[in-house]
Every structure is written in structure tokens, then in C-alpha cells.
Amino acid sequence: MFMLVVLQVVVELATIQTTAAAEKVAVVVLVVVEVVVVVVVVVVVVVVVVAVVAVVVVVVIEVLLVVVEVVVIVDVVVEEVLVAAAAAVVVVVVVVVVVVVVIV
């Protein structure tokens, strides 16, 4: 009878130790899973931030290209206006010279 009680106590202690070990393993597994989830979330956030920065850079480059195109167009228009103004001045000078020559 005494051996049966001792055996029962030994089995109970082994069960308690096994349960405690299993709980420790479960806690370690949960911590590892949580760390992996946090790392994955951080990687996803970094990828999203890099993608947003890339989109912003592309938009800024496109805006700068449009500004350069507008500056080139304005330059051409100003050049054409200056050429037209110079031609108008030449015409006015020629007309004034002709009028002065005719009058004199």
C-alpha cells in the first residue's frame, strides 16, 4: 500500500513537472511567434514607407519635368515676342526714314 502511494506521488510529481515544462515550451513558442509577427509587421511598414517615398520622389521628378517644359515654352514664346518686337521696330524705322526722305 505504501509503495502504491509513493508511486502515485511520483506519477503526480512527474505530471506536474511535465506540465510545467510544457507550459514553459508553450510560453517560449508564443514569444517566438510574437517576435516573428513584430518583425514581419516592421518589415511591411518599412516596405510601405519606402514605396510611399518612391512615389513622392517620382511625383516630384514629374513636377520638375513639367516646370522645365513650361520654362522652355515660355523662353521660346519670349524669344518669338522679342523677334516680333525687333521686326516691328525695324519696320517703324524704315517707315520713318521713308517718310523723312519723301518729305525732304
Automatic annotation (TrEMBL):
Domain of life (superkingdom): Eukaryota
Keyword tags: Membrane, Signal, Transmembrane, Transmembrane helix
Residue ranges of the TM segments: 37-68, 80-103
Signal peptide: 1-21
Protein name as annotated: ABC transmembrane type-1 domain-containing protein
The species this protein was found in: Elysia marginata
